[in-house]
Amino acid sequence: MINVKKSASDKLIDAIIYFILAIIMLLTLYPFWTQVVISLDGGGTDSAAYSSGIVLFPSQLTFGSYKLALQFDELWTGYGYTVLRTVLGVILSIVFTAMTAYPLSKKDLPMNKAFTSIILFTMLFAGGTIPSYLLIKELHLMNTVWALVVPGMIGAINVLIMRNFFRSIPEELEESARVDGAGYMRIFTQVVLPLSKPVLATVALWVGVGHWNAWFDSLIYITDPDKQVLQVVLRKIIIQNNTSDITLLIQNLGKNTSFSGRQLQATVVMFSILPMLIVYPFIQKYFVKGVMIGAIKG
Amino acid sequence: MNDTAVVTKADLVLTKAKLRKERWRKYKQYRALLIMMIPAMLYYLVFHYLPMYGVLLAFKDFKILQGIWNSPWVGFDIFEKIFHDEYFFTVLKNTMIISLYKLLFGFPVPIIFALLLSEVMNARYKKLIQTVTYLPHFISWVVLAGIFFTLFSLEGPVNTIVKLFGGDPVLYLADPRYFRTILVITSIFQGFGWGSIIYFAAISNIDPQLYEAAIIDGAGRFKRMFYISIPMLVPIIAIMLILSMSGILDAGFDQIFNMYNVQVYNVADIIDTYVYRKGIVEMNYSYATAVGLFKSVVALILIFAVNRIVKMIGGKDHALW
After folding, report:
1. Residue B8 distance to chain A (closest CA, Å)
2. If residue A243 lies in a helix (H) or strand (E), which one and from where to where?
3. What is the pLDDT of residue B287?
4. Looking at the whole model, is its pTM more than 0.95?
């Protein structure tokens, strides 16, 4: 853009916009900050968790509630199941989505239109909660990790995004590989996939976050309380306010603690989102790139 | 050479054979890829199309021991029951109201935010704001609900401010008068940053020459925004608006299910939460399936209608198919 000297009013408008955006940013962060403060505040009955109001900083720093929460076995098994489903889910999704998208990227593929329609129609109409639930039941997948991983394995949108990306790879590359005697399988694994890292990473991230945050499927398909994912454990503690678990825990640990239910709730919230908060700034740009890739219509 | 073709029968047979041969050759050429499609097709058949068959439940008196196929047909009896169920209309009304409120108040926010953000020239500041505002999109509603419980609790920050201005503290999340407002505000909180990406991309794609010309003509910031940025955004705004219309029966299951409670069922219960309680909790499978089917069919009709409207307004390029 050409350089125009900013007038005084321009500078004022700039200042106002910067200020408004700063406020928006603070408002977005503050809810998370309250959890940090409450979880770390060791002020006993004077602590943020009790006096609440507008808390800015812990009156007295303590990691006691974290120490307590870390001894809460249910959280760890929940963590384990969440990690398991996320890893399994991402691997299966990526492998099968790519395997579906690659053939469809060949416009000449026999029945390409039919395959695509079969996949796209699932975006328009679904059997719904109950028929899916009964299906999982009849397949005897209840209480297995497969009930959480397989039903959403190949997302139609992800297929479209990958297919479009594969199509953008220059045809000549594949052709030269074919001249060298490579079959489709080889081309796919040794030429196409290595060139598709951006789209694979994007879809993997999306699927991964989806699995990390998912809870409803675990709630209905996993009836065994010892096999629930982290989000369901959190639900029990936060939403259903089942602090009796916590009280019981405190008793079991035989400690006289000054931690309130709310403080422990804030602590388990931090416990679950901390990994996300740590990796998020680094992977954020890939998500954005993914939205852009997805926006390309084809 | 003049071969204005006199097509003989023999020729036709020949071309047909040729075509068949050609097709066969293609199948052979693509054999590996066709085999690659098998898992996906099996997957879609089992996990997407079999449940579609399950909607037959809506027309049957489901007996678990007899299975879907052997349970007796009851025609439209269940739908009749639904349409005589007063609570169903409460639920339907709630779904529409919550969804429309979210659209009305939530839709403009990302656009305004993107316009403001695009005025920021400092790249690092811009990046920082984007990173922060996208964040809530990646946090589950279980966690967000927990956070909002704290914020809106009797001693929480919101009530502290209310008290500061001389108001009485209110238990917002258990009060039918405020519950929907909270739903709308919190859903904006969660989604506005992420939702702005598409508008932001559209704004940064606008030809800078347009702005340069406007500057030379003496247009100020607001004039540039009103006469260039916003008009250039109109097509994408229209598409996004129309697309969101097709989701009008999705009032946000994740959010409501985690935030509601018995005190606010009357204003907060939506089709999806009702289906969960009727179906999974009360095991009234046929009833819940029928309610769900009603929703799916309405959504399907809306999608087709929307696609037509998009074609009419935005042209074929923007249509879904």
Report:
1. 29
2. helix A243-252
3. 92
4. no
